[in-house]
Amino acid sequence: MEEMKFAIKKLPARTVVGIARRTSNAEAAGVIPGCWQEFFTTNAVAKIPHRAVPPVMYAVYSDYEKDWTRPYSYLLGCGVTKAGKVPEGMEARHIPAQTYAIFRAKGKMPDEIVGVWANIWASNLPRTYTYDFELYDQRFTRPLNKEAEIYVAIEPKDDMVPI
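Below the sequence we write its predicted structure tokens.
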């Protein structure tokens, strides 16, 4: 595994509303792109009330059956200031305050996202398997040099040093 650089940071709680699917890494290549397609073809962004400013999209991984090799829930949505009434066909995820290892994916998407995840799966990070997420902000909308961040919930260790 190529060594990856990451930051460690404790983040406050946040809420995301969007379209959810249950999947596993064995099925994700079909399920996740379909979720993205539905999100954009149904104009889901416009249906989500109380969107946070600046607007940010999240892909949230939660409800892990055990670890990255087993089924989990995937939600593609927007950060909100409050969940309120969740639109029909959507769900809310309330992500608690946690400590994260933060990785940057930069370049050809979604290939770079998949590559970073592959390195995370092969790592020895002390993952909690609670709520992980990808953050897509204005850097992801660039025509070239797209960027996104991957936040992996971890149990912080005193001797943990970002690489």
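The CA atoms of residues 24 and 71 lie 4 Å apart.
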